[in-house]
Amino acid sequence: MNSQTKLDDSELSIHFKNVTKWRSYTLDHPVLDQLNWKLEGAGVHALLGPNGAGKSTTLQILLGLMIPDQGEISVLNFDPLSARQYLSAKLGYVPDSPPLYPMLTVEEYLKYTFELRINENELGKTQFQKKWASQLAKVCDVLQLGPWLKSKCAILSYGMKGRVALAQGFIHDPLIVIMDEPTKGLDPESLVMVRKFFVEEKQSKILLYCTHHLRDLPLMSDSVSILAKGKIIYQSKMNAVEKGIDFETLYIDTVKNYENTLHS
Predict the structure, then answer these.
(1) Cα–Cα distances in Å, from 236 out to 20, 39, 153, 207, 228?
(2) pLDDT tens track for 183-242
C-alpha cells in the first residue's frame, strides 16, 4: 500500500546533537538544553514530558518552523532548515488543535493539504491524480471517512475532526509523521481505528507522537522517550521494558528522580 522506497535505518532517522534553544523572554534556563536524541528506523515512537519540558519546541524544530540557537539537527539525513522545501513532501504534521477550514468539505480539505505537499508539475498530472486517489482511498478505508467526504468541516464532531486531522498528516504518504496528542478526545471506536492505522503505517515510517495518555503506550508504541528540563532523560524500546510495568509510575518516578538530582 505504500509507494515510498523503503529506507534503511540510518536514512530513516531523526538526530539531535547538542541542540540548545533559549526562550525569547528569559535567559534563566533554555527550553532545550544540549539535547541529544536519536530515532532510527520505522516504528511508533512516543515522546513524553511534563508541561514546559520542551516537547512542542522539539517538534517545531523538527518541522523547520523554529531555529535552534546551538547544535545540529538531521531529519532523513537533511538539515530541516536548509532542506525545508524538499522535506515538506516527506514530513506530515498532526497538531493538537487541527486547523480545519470550516467551509471546505472533508474531501476538499484533504485535497488542499495534499496539493500543498505534492507538486503536480514534478510528478506529472497522471501520476499526481493516481497518487491522490490511492492515498484518499487508504485514509478513508482505515479511518472510515467515506461517509463524511462531502460534509463541511464545520459540522464535524470533535472526534471526527481528530480523524480528519490525522488523515491530512498522512494524505501525501510522508516518511515521518509528527503528531501532538493525536488521540486526545477520541472515543473508544476512534482510538481502535488510530491504533490499527499506526500498525499499518509504521512498517515504513517514523511515527513520532507526544502524549499524556500513558496507559496507551504498550498498545501504540515501539519506543518511548521522556523529555524533562530540555533533555532526554529516558529512552527505551518497548520490548526492553519490564512486562507488566506501570508506565504512569515509571514516568512520574523518572521525572521526579531527575529533578531531585538537579536540586541535590
Answers:
(1) 23, 11, 39, 16, 15
(2) 887 888 888 888 888 998 999 999 999 988 887 788 889 999 999 999 999 999 987 676
pLDDT confidence band for 54 (50 / 70 / 90) = very high
Q: What are phi and psi of 70, to 5 degrees?
A: -150, 160
Longest dimension (CA), the chain: 64
Q: How far apart are the first and last CA of the chain?
A: 53
User: β-pairing, 70-75 with 13-21?
Assistant: antiparallel
Residue 18 falls inside a structural domain? yes
The answer to whether residue 153 sits within a structural domain is no
Sequence-distant (6+) residues with CB within 8 A of 163 are 143, 144, 145, 186, 190, 193
Alpha carbons 36 and 67: distance in angstroms, whole number: 16
Indicate the pTM of the whole model. 0.90
Residue 36 lies in a domain: yes
Question: What is the CATH classification number for the domain harbouring 48?
Answer: 3.40.50.300
Question: Which residues span the domain enclosing 234?
Answer: 8-85+209-264
**Residue 189: what pLDDT?**
84
> How many folded domains does the chain comprise?
1
Element (H, E) at 129: helix 125-143
- Average model confidence (pLDDT) across the chain: 89
For residue 61, being part of any structural domain is answered with yes
